[in-house]
Here is the input.
Amino acid sequence: MRRLTLRTVALGYLALILLGPLSVVFWRAFEKGFGPAWNAVTTPEAMHAFQLTLVIAAIAVPANTIFGVLCALLIVRHPFPGKGLLNALVDLPLALSPVVVGFALFLLYGRTGWFGSWLSGHGIQVLFALPSMILATAFVSIPFVVREVVPVLREIGTDQEQAAETLGASQWQTFRRVTFPAIRWEVAYGVVLTTARSLGGYGAVSVVSGRLAGQTETATLYVSDRYENFDIVGAYAASVVLALMAIVVLLTMNLLRPKEGVH
Amino acid sequence: MGIHVEGVTKRFGSFTALNEVSLDVQQGSLTALLGPSGSGKSTLLRVIAGLERPDAGRVTISGEDATGVAPRKRGVGFVFQHYAAFKHMTVRGNIAFGLKIRKRPRAEVRARVDELLALVQLQPFADRYPSQLSGGQRQRMALARALAVEPKVLLLDEPFGALDTRVRGELREWLHRLHDEVRVTTVFVTHDQEEAMALADQIAVLHDGRIEQVGSPRDLYDQPQTPFVMSFVGAAAQLGERWVRQHDLDLRLEPTAGALEARVERIARLGFEARVELQLAGSGTVWAQMTCAELNRLELERGDTVWVLADRARVFAESS
Here is the structure.
């Protein structure tokens, strides 16, 4: 009886918070049939927005993956003064509102900002262009790989790495053949979360991008743009594409992941 | 040749793990580092392997100064207490690791791994993962992995510490035979004096970051130089200034010159041997060890008064 109650509450909450809105998105997108929805997401602006989102993710995700693994190794394996600060700093993007991040970048790279004046003097446009959008996306998706990898690095300890060392492996060989295989599923999971956040990022990107349709409009910005212009089908159809992207990422992850309990 | 450790000091913060330790290990010998936990024995082994960097002192392996040399270039094989198995590799993959790092031809790796699998009797388990092996099997795998690269010295850190008593005994015998076959200079760390006595040609007893005494098992037992060695290598009782082995306590039923009067508190028969707990007339308690046959001859009962003769007791000079 108690188990049934627990199940009802948990699933009911999920349905209310998660499945409900998601089904509305699908329902509204295809309300007038498949045709209008398809047309809405294949306009040049829509195509450009999806492409831009993928380009940003394709740069921000690998960068954050490499940084995340290095950062986790630093935190766990190479204690240094200020380690606690780094540890706390990594979580900052989770605590800080993305809009604030966007404004910070805006001030830093704006025409009168610290970096902005120098960069624009050298003909490099950061704000209202791809670089600032990548920076904003990378910032908000930093914590995921680090947070996934740190606990498992702690758990596996240093014995295996030291064994590899005594067997003649260099630092890189030890990482590639011993450490990485031990953390690969956590890295993969971190990548999935980073990707999901990159695809869905809105606040920070919306501040720094300038939201120029067909130029600096990512998929999420495009959705809100369509919505504000009363193109309901367009907004929902684009949302469906975003949702499908997220689902594909999660499924890939689940297919890659070995079944629990093996090895 | 062998291993030469000279004046090694290692501190962890304010704790001095090793205090100017020097040790010579003969080429081809089997040496035990024996001591209680916190005595510095594992740290000494890790300094020899290069896994810890000493604050002072030198380590020479096979005549070459290894002090500043990275572990991977020292030619040491290291076996960890908790196996340190590469969990995502099969037994074969684990053993082949060092050879693959050295980019040996595939056929050679295969042949060498087969040879080692036979040596550690793990052929039927070649394609299993470490999680599918017992503790004893994992440790044999770890040994084969360390031996694969033909190390100049083999270092084992409490190699049997995580195993149950029966398996520990088997592996001990097995390591002894292996050493007879392979003849690689071997140093192992243990807190178990019986294990050290049963396996080693030479034992170094460590206490509080210093080496108390180095010698053969017989030397340490018969000629201990400090009370610590006497009580740690085999048991010993203290009678005032004098130290004596429990089996050297001679119980008499009549008053005897030079003997201490005592009362029998408890008698425990352990099969072949027996222990008699004694309350000394002066103060303190000791137990005496004897065979059950001897106990029968004395016909001791609880509450009896006996005279304890300790002719073979030792007196140690005040140690610093």
